[in-house]
Amino acid sequence: MFLITNRKLCDKNKYESIIYDACKAGVEYIIIREKDLDSESLEKLFMKVCVKLSEEKTIRERNKIIVNSNTDIYRKKECDGIHLPFSLFKSLINENFYFDKNKLLGISLHSIEDIDEMEKIKRESNIKVDYITLSHIFETDCKKNLKPKGLKLLEEGKKHTDVKIIALGGINSDNVSEVMKYADDYAVMSEIMKSDNVYRTVENLKIYK
């Protein structure tokens, strides 16, 4: 399970604790998103999360902390990977950016055409892509007035790539079992960041197991 952070959805004083509790309850990957922050502020927040998760050794060893888009933070030893919009991924490829094969690389995609293009780039550049997110699957407040892609995108996506597919968008305890028929894993944001009981929320999201 992936958690994509959004500090605007929770009490700012509980931000690190929500992430910590989510990891303790079973979330494996954290994507620090916070797109509105400048690089310095994002790095400070990123390091706070690292410190919080390090309070319990087994949690920090088990969980991966991924930064969204910021290549400077990606280069730091504390960072386990980077998640990129497809457009930024292509720009970095054109710039011959060095992707560390010991770190995770995830890319946001939204269509079968995106998947096919990603596969072509991956082959030509010999780049290791660890996972892709496909979105948005269901209606979500993050994408108001945009029609969701539905489960069909996941189902068709499997035919076009062997890269791990992460379903994203409107996923909750009511639909996660359907999602996992077609995806390798799933990502959530609001369901956890807004939760008053993170342990219970994560446990409910794990019901499909």
UniProtKB/TrEMBL annotation:
Keyword field: Thiamine biosynthesis
Family annotation (SUPFAM superfamilies): Thiamin phosphate synthase (SSF51391)
Pfam families noted in UniProt: TMP-TENI
Pathway: Cofactor biosynthesis; thiamine diphosphate biosynthesis
GO terms for biological process, alphabetical: thiamine biosynthetic process
Any GO molecular function: thiamine-phosphate diphosphorylase activity
Residue ranges constituting the Thiamine phosphate synthase/TenI domain according to the UniProt record: 2-192
CC annotations in GO: cytoplasm
Keyword Signal on entry: no
Domain of life: Bacteria
InterPro entries to which the protein is assigned, alphabetical: Aldolase_TIM, ThiamineP_synth_sf, ThiamineP_synth_TenI
Protein name: Thiamine phosphate synthase
